[in-house]
């Protein structure tokens, strides 16, 4: 059995008896390496510092934004000594959140990410930023991004009370469940949460709350724990228990995040640019039946609150409704929805273009069809997939075929910037529209030729009548008659050739279908 996933033993001492700490080192070797790293900048040989550190200088340096490590390097000493002086002088220290934000701004958080067992890459964490006012006003770009989120995005709420540890790697899901129930006032969950803490102020606090909720076992455990704690710890735990309020009265119980998933990164990159964010696009490899996926996550309470006001809710697939919006951005919103859950493909023999949309919400699909009809497209029949199953397993779809696909292209993409659409679907729609427009121009050309062929016999009859009347310029009339007959024959031949030729739509579709057949499918859907 391997020591860890990537290492067979400690990379420093070679042991497998002690647990792995980080970076391929056991706990002892990691502590030693950390101490060496913190003292690597010290160059003095004497024990005493060359100059004493005054309180004013230390406070000025710390408040200017320097970290304890930065100040230690300036004075040629250890970080632990600087921290000792800060506490001695009574200088107010930063919170962990402020310290992390400052480190992010300066690009200090750098780590090595292992890709398998051979490859590594260096990652520098950055403070995530986003335009918090992006969803406050209706614009074409905002409506398009909202459409993408409505179809391929989701909101997640993670309950995280103040003081809860993020590093509960074993049993993490169970811990979160217990915390959520405990904060709602469940005495049993409070008892189990106190058992997880085992010892200390938090354990005594939750035992106290569970005992007040009627759990007799919690009262016994609290009394036993009180024998092991100091009076100061007991007083602090009781104070926290008195200040505790149920979850529904806490203003900041959940951390919200927006997540958008796509099989290709192009759409996520354009959404990120429009939202003014620098969030990383992560890639997840194929796992079991789940395919590979690119994911964009944005953690911002203001953005998530605006999205909830616009109708985006957790687990929205079956309950989502079409949002209220100004008429001039409806087509941008629909284009975003089509980039997410819509499809455009060629199917059948001979190939025929189709454009379909599918959703788990019947109300949303019905309203979407109504808005497309208002934009000039024909009404569509909504089909139910898996009609025999329960409502939570059903999906609803509709489809445009033939010339209607070309009309849909003009509705969604006319006079639209390329930065607010998915190029792959736009190019397919454009190819369909070009084919039909070429076919229409050919049909108009055939109609004009037919009109000319129809008018030629009249001209020939007039020429023959002039000959019978004995016109003076008999030679010119005969020449004109021969030219008319030759033109008539040429037009008839051209008309016959055009009417017997396959329309351009079939030619264009024949060029696309073999690519799909090589992939082993007859229909191309997204």
Structural notes for this entry:
The structure is a single chain. The protein is an alpha+beta fold and 526 residues long. It has four domains: 20-112, no CATH class; 134-158 and 253-309, Endonuclease I-creI; 161-249; 317-526, Homing endonucleases (Endonuclease I-creI, Roll), CATH 3.10.28. 51% of the residues lie in helices and 13% in strands. It is built from 19 helices and twelve strands. The protein has helices spanning 27-39, 55-63, 68-75, 79-89, 96-105, 140-152, 172-183, 187-197, 201-212, 216-226, 231-243, 265-274, 301-309, 330-341, 362-374, 403-413, 423-468, 474-500, 504-518, and strands at 20-22, 25-26, 110-115, 119-124, 153-159, 254-262, 281-284, 293-298, 342-347, 352-359, 383-385, 395-401. It has a four-stranded antiparallel sheet with strand order 5-6-8-7. The chain has a four-stranded antiparallel sheet with strand order 9-10-12-11. A hairpin with a 4-residue loop joins strand 9 and strand 10 (352-359). Helix 9 runs antiparallel to helix 10 (216-226) and helix 17 (423-468) packs antiparallel against helix 19. It is elongated, with a radius of gyration of 37 Å. The relative contact order is 0.07. Mean pLDDT is 79; it is low at 160-173 and 502-526.
Summarize the structure.
By secondary structure, the chain is an alpha+beta fold.
CATH third-tier fold name of the largest domain: Endonuclease I-creI
Specify the overall morphology: elongated
Name of the top-level CATH class of the largest domain: Alpha Beta
Q: Please report the number of helical segments.
A: 19
Biggest beta sheet attributes:
4 strands, antiparallel
List low-confidence stretches.
160-173, 502-526
The percent of residues in helical segments reads 40-55%
- Known CATH architecture of the largest domain: Roll
Give the N-to-C terminal Cα separation: 43 Å
Q: What gyration radius follows from the Cα positions, in whole Å?
A: 37 Å
The count of DSSP E runs of length 2 or more, i.e. the number of strands, is: 12
- What is the mean pLDDT? 79
Strand order of the largest sheet: 5-6-8-7
- CATH homology-level superfamily of the largest domain: Homing endonucleases
Number of domains: 4
